[in-house]
Amino acid sequence: MMKKQHGPAFRKQLIELAQCPACRGKAVIKGVFHEMECIQCNASGWVVAETGEALQLQDLVMQLSFKLQEAQRKVEALKRASTTGIGKHYELNNRLGAGGSNYTGD
Ligand SMILES: [Zn+2]
């Protein structure tokens, strides 16, 4: 029997993921004739860092979304840094405060 959770269901928390050792994060495994979905990671390329097991599909989608959002934020930050030509300056700017797009100079 499955235990039923009571109270406000589940907390949406970030689960630390690790690259799937079976497919090395590729989500597919090369078979003899074609590529097959990797079973170990639900064809996601990621497993739970702590247990090395695949996430439930539902959780997986959410965790991948978190990861993607994080990656996108980094890309955006890098883009902004390069378009304003402040590659090196970015680190400096970072020290002035998080989210500091209001660079006014003094
Ligand atoms: Zn895998």
Defining traits:
106 residues, alpha+beta, 2 helices, 4 strands, flat, binds zinc ion
Question: Layout of SSEs?
Answer:
Blueprint: E1 17-19, E2 28-30, E3 35-37, E4 46-48, H1 57-83, H2 89-95
Antiparallel strand pairs: 1-4, 2-3
The structure holds zinc ion.
How would you characterize the overall build of this protein?
A hairpin with a 4-residue loop joins strand 2 and strand 3. The protein has a two-stranded antiparallel ribbon. The protein has a two-stranded antiparallel sheet with strand order 2-3. It has two helices and four strands; from the N terminus they run ββββαα. It has helices at residues 57-83, 89-95; strands at 17-19, 28-30, 35-37, 46-48. The protein is flat. With 106 residues, the chain is of the alpha+beta class. It binds zinc ion (ZN). Zinc ion binds at residues 20, 22-23, 38, 40-41, 45. Zinc ion binds next to loops.
Category by helix and strand content? alpha+beta
Low-pLDDT stretches:
none
Report strand order across the widest sheet.
Answer: 1-4
The number of helical runs is 2
Q: What is the overall shape?
A: flat
Beta fraction of the residues? 5-15%
Roughly how many Å apart are the termini?
A: 66 Å
Order of helices and strands: EEEEHH
Bound molecules: zinc ion
Mean pLDDT: 82
Rounded Rg: 20 Å
Number of domains: 1
Number-wise, the strands total: 4
Q: Report the sheet with the most strands, covering strand number, pairing sense and barrel closure.
A: 2 strands, antiparallel
> What share of residues is helical?
25-40%
